[in-house]
């Protein structure tokens, strides 16, 4: 007996209730608070804010909780929420020279004015499981030294003073900095648009792309000129007031690479640059972004492309967005039976013709 | 004979290097002009400028179309340019992969230009594709095979059929026998030469191989470092080279 | 969505965004079949699940509208239910399963069997708006091909179909030419539905969210399926009768009803089937 495929609505409701139940998990264990996530999973939050393109640790924590720790799902929640927010205006360009850095290192000079500041990094930890954490071990508070209260000049600025690295041009108007979230991505994109796309690209995708350039697919010989992580203020001009006010202080990671030089017999050689900028403490992504940015710049720097994936603007920009990617990849689990039916009919018809032709032989 | 293509004072720089330095050439109807020189001499760059795949930094190029109008190619609107490329012009690449769709059958490749100009009858397209695949000496039974399983020589012949089916007037060739064995080369050159004569084509052929140049070209242009160092009738240039560079080229080939 | 409904604007999107989408829609109507880039927003359902259609619907909806949502022809498939509930919640509009009573119909993969009228809008969800995409992967190149009407490659695909299979083996998302100009992807509807697009009295709007494109077919516009003179287009269907309503001219779903693989056929358009039964 055929039963029409009814009851979709009830099935969905039940699925949602089951999902909620699984999210909460064993009721004997205390419910995870948003505050706990916010204060103890800050690197997850950084990823959700960066790829969700919304700086709000509280909402990012909520999203992580709601998504059961699936960060792409959490990013998705943030993106969908972001859609509903009206845009009041455009902030003033932030100046990372004014950053209060908690980490700031350079790989190009042994020492730099202000010193190398390691900050809270995994870099020199031994990756050994710390079983003390299983037993709720309490951790001593750490008081950072005075080093962390100053502002530093950028390392690349020293090279720039010597004229030995290309000068970064500030975009002259707002039109040079289109908003990726308000305008469709159109190729060719200028650098401002590319950087926006990269900063909200999937970390894993960017990491793979960056890695491919190091392994020879569009090699560009990078050095980390400087990597800095810290707080900077965001200012906004209120037209009625006529001056800037600080609306937020945000944590960001910034990476500037110094790359292969460029020049000819007539034009003296200069180092070129790659740039990475990400919300929160996320240096893996900042470095990857700088490498990919540099790889994508081949045309404006007058280089010849190797045809490597990381040099292909359309490829990188169209495929780095994990929300677009996950939706489309996963949509093939939706019903497609109408299309499949059409294919069934066709293949049966073609097979029939082929069998008949064979019989005639 | 009248002219079909005129290029004046073509400049093209890559970085600070001139690949084409103030070059002027003319091509007459039914004439085969060979551009020879070593790699890096700028001969392929010149060909790409003439055929519209590169935009020169300076100079001008004009072409006499089927309706006897001189067209200024550098200011020609893109639609007209593309239309020329699939009707009156053809380009044979050194690597057949650049000129063929490797995932499309031989017949589909040959028929593409017909479909592009509006042919909508399958049987007719197929009949013409069959005629042309035979003309380039490939067995018609291979019509539905993909070029990826063809030999290099067959791929090159397929590329020629694909280009000639719309009966172009002007054909650009970039080292058309470049990657092939000597015996395959000879057979292919023979085929190209007879088709060129049969169809009365005007041809610009770029080659580093003086034997190919002698076999194909009526007239030769010798290039070095982005400049034309010598030009004249093929036999005259090869048998009595005037410029020291041409003398060097000719003597080096004779030693082989 | 744990927030209360009051937190959202009518039909979810803010008015600025709706205006932006409407501008794209007007442009699309003016150039039938042309893909207009638009700044697609993230919606609370995943890309590939109808975000383009949802945004177009959101931009079209007014409080007096009556909305119908179908997926695979049916009002009761999970994704159709999910989208219908979304609009009930964020727009509070009336919804219906009755094709004739709807003023806006959002669809995935089908065109209703009942002939649409002048006061209806049909919104298609589109996964890949570019009909040339699988022949030429680059957007920069396909846009030029459209601009210059360089469509030879599309026929090469059909030529290949015939050479290999003896007929044009495209069963759905069958390419069409709109108003004698643009080649358009009708979205993955079975080719059985293609003739319904031709001179359709309703407005047909197409939204591709992830690909950020909107296109449209205005009412009473010529929509022709591509073919060869000697291999004409055929709107094929299963040569069977609906076992529920007895229809012989509708698109049918094939359902496996037991472990022995017994099949039964019934209308894919559930509302049409129900209306004939009663």
What features would you describe in this structure?
- The complex is a heterotrimer of chains A (361), B (256) and C (278).
- With 361 residues, chain A is an alpha+beta fold.
- Chain A has three domains: 9-82, no CATH class; 96-120 and 149-168 and 181-320, no CATH class; 336-360.
- Helix content of chain A is 39%, strand content 15%.
- Chain A is built from twelve helices and four strands; from the N terminus they run αααααβαααβββαααα.
- A four-stranded antiparallel beta sheet of chain A has the order 1-2-3-4.
- In chain A, helix 2 packs across helix 4.
- The radius of gyration of chain A is 26 Å and the shape is globular.
- With 256 residues, chain B is an alpha/beta fold.
- Chain B has two domains: 3-88 and 168-255, P-loop containing nucleotide triphosphate hydrolases (Rossmann fold, 3-Layer(aba) Sandwich), CATH 3.40.50.300; 100-167.
- Chain B has helices at residues 43-50, 78-86, 96-99, 106-116, 122-135, 152-164, 182-199, 210-216, 234-239, 244-255, and strands at 3-14, 17-28, 32-36, 58-64, 70-72, 89-92, 170-174, 202-207, 219-224, 227-233.
- In chain B, strands 6-7-8-3-9-10 form a six-stranded mixed beta sheet, sandwiched between helices. Chain B has a four-stranded antiparallel beta sheet with strand order 2-1-4-5, with helices on one face.
- In chain B, helix 4 (106-116) runs parallel beside helix 6 (152-164), helix 5 (122-135) crosses helix 6 and helix 6 runs parallel beside helix 7.
- The longest helix of chain B is centred in the last third of the chain and has 18 residues, at 182-199.
- Chain B is globular.
- Chain C has helices at residues 15-30, 51-60, 78-90, 139-147, 152-165, 194-197, 270-277; strands at residues 36-37, 66-71, 94-95, 104-108, 121-125, 176-178, 182-184, 203-208, 213-217, 223-225, 252-256, 263-267.
- In chain C, strand 2, helix 3 and strand 3 (94-95) form a beta-alpha-beta unit.
- In chain C, helix 1 (15-30) crosses helix 2 (51-60).
- In chain C, 54% of the residues are buried.
- The model of chain C has no long low-confidence stretch (mean pLDDT 92).
- Chains A and C meet through helix 1, helix 5, helix 11 and helix 12 of A and helix 1, helix 3 and strand 11 of C.
């Amino acid at each position: 007996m055929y039963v029409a495929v009814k009851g979709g609505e009830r099935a969905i409701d039940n699925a949602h209730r089951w999902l909620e139940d699984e999210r909460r998990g064993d009721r004997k264990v205390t419910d995870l608070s948003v505050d706990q996530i916010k204060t103890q999973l800050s690197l997850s939050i950084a990823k959700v804010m960066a790829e969700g393109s919304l700086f709000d640790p509280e909402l990012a924590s909520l999203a992580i909780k709601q998504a059961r720790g699936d960060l792409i799902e959490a990013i998705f929640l943030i993106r969908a929420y972001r859609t509903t927010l009206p845009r009041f205006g455009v902030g003033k360009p932030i100046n990372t020279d004014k950053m209060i850095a908690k980490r700031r290192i350079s790989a190009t000079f042994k020492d730099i004015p202000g010193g190398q500041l390691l900050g809270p990094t995994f870099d020199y930890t031994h990756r050994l499981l710390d079983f003390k954490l299983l037993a709720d071990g309490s951790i001593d508070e750490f008081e950072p030294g005075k080093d962390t209260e100053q502002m530093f000049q950028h390392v690349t600025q020293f090279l720039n003073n010597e004229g030995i690295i290309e000068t970064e041009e500030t975009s002259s108007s707002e039109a040079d900095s289109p908003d990726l979230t308000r305008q469709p991505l159109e190729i060719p994109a200028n650098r401002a648009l590319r950087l926006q796309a990269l900063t909200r690209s999937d970390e894993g995708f960017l990491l793979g792309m960056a890695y491919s350039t190091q392994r020879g697919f569009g090699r560009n010989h990078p050095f980390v000129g400087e990597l800095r992580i810290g707080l900077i203020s965001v200012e906004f001009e209120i037209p009625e007031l006529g001056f800037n006010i600080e609306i937020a202080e945000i944590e960001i990671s910034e990476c500037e690479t110094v790359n292969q030089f460029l020049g000819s017999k007539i034009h003296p050689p200069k180092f070129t640059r790659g740039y990475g900028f990400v919300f929160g403490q996320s240096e893996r992504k900042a470095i990857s972004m700088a490498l990919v940015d540099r790889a994508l710049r081949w045309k404006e720097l007058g280089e010849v492309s190797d045809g490597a994936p990381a040099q292909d603007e359309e490829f990188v920009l169209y495929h780095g967005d994990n929300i677009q990617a996950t939706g489309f990849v996963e949509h093939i689990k939706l019903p497609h039976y109408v299309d499949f039916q059409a294919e069934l009919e066709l293949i049966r018809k073609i097979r029939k013709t082929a069998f008949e032709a064979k019989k005639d032989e | 004979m009248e002219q079909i293509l005129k290029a004046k004072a073509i400049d093209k720089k890559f970085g600070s290097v001139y690949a084409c330095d103030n070059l002027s050439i003319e091509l007459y109807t039914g004439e085969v002009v060979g551009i020879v020189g070593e790699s890096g001499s700028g001969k392929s760059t010149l060909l790409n400028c003439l055929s519209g795949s590169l935009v020169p930094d300076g100079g001008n190029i004009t072409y006499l179309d089927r309706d006897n109008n001189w067209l200024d190619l550098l200011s020609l609107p893109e639609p007209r340019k593309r239309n020329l490329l699939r009707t009156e012009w053809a380009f044979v690449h050194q690597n057949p992969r650049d000129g063929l769709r490797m995932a499309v059958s031989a017949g589909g490749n040959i028929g593409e230009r017909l479909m592009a100009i509006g042919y909508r009858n399958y049987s007719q397209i197929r009949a013409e594709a069959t005629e042309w695949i035979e003309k380039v000496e490939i067995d018609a039974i291979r019509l539905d095979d993909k070029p990826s399983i063809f030999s290099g020589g067959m791929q090159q012949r397929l590329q020629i059929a694909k280009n000639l089916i719309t009966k172009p007037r002007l054909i650009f060739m970039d080292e058309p026998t470049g990657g092939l064995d000597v015996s395959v080369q000879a057979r292919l050159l023979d085929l190209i030469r007879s088709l060129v004569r049969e169809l009365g084509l005007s041809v610009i052929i770029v080659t580093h191989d003086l034997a190919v140049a002698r076999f194909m070209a009526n007239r030769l242009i010798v290039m070095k470092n982005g400049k034309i160092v010598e030009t004249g009738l093929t036999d005259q240039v090869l048998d009595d080279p005037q410029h020291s560079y041409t003398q060097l080229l000719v003597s080096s080939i004779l030693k082989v | 969505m744990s927030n209360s409904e009051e937190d959202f604007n009518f039909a979810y999107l803010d008015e600025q965004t709706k205006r932006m989408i409407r501008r794209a829609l007007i442009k699309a109507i003016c150039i039938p079949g042309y893909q207009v880039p638009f700044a697609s927003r993230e919606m609370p359902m995943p890309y590939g699940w109808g975000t383009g259609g949802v945004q177009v619907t959101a931009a079209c909806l007014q409080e007096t509208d009556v909305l119908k949502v179908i997926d695979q022809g049916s009002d009761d498939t999970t994704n159709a239910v999910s989208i219908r509930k979304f609009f009930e919640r964020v727009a509070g509009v009336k919804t219906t399963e009755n094709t004739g009573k709807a003023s806006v119909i959002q669809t995935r993969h089908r065109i209703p069997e009942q002939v649409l009228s002048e006061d209806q809008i049909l919104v298609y969800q589109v996964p890949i708006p570019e009909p040339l995409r699988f022949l030429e992967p680059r957007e920069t190149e396909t846009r030029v091909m459209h601009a210059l009407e360089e469509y030879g490659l599309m026929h090469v695909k059909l030529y290949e179909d015939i050479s290999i299979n003896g007929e044009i083996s495209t069963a759905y998302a069958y390419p069409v030419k709109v108003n004698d100009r643009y080649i358009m992807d009708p979205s993955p509807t079975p080719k059985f539905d293609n003739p319904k697009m031709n001179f359709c009295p309703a407005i047909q709007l197409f939204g591709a969210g992830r690909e950020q494109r909107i296109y449209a077919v205005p009412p009473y516009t010529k929509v022709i399926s591509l073919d060869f003179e000697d291999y004409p287009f055929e709107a094929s269907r299963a040569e069977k009768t609906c076992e529920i309503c007895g229809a012989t001219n509708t698109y049918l779903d094939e359902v496996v009803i037991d472990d022995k693989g017994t099949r039964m056929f019934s209308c894919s358009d559930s509302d049409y089937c129900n209306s004939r039964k009663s």
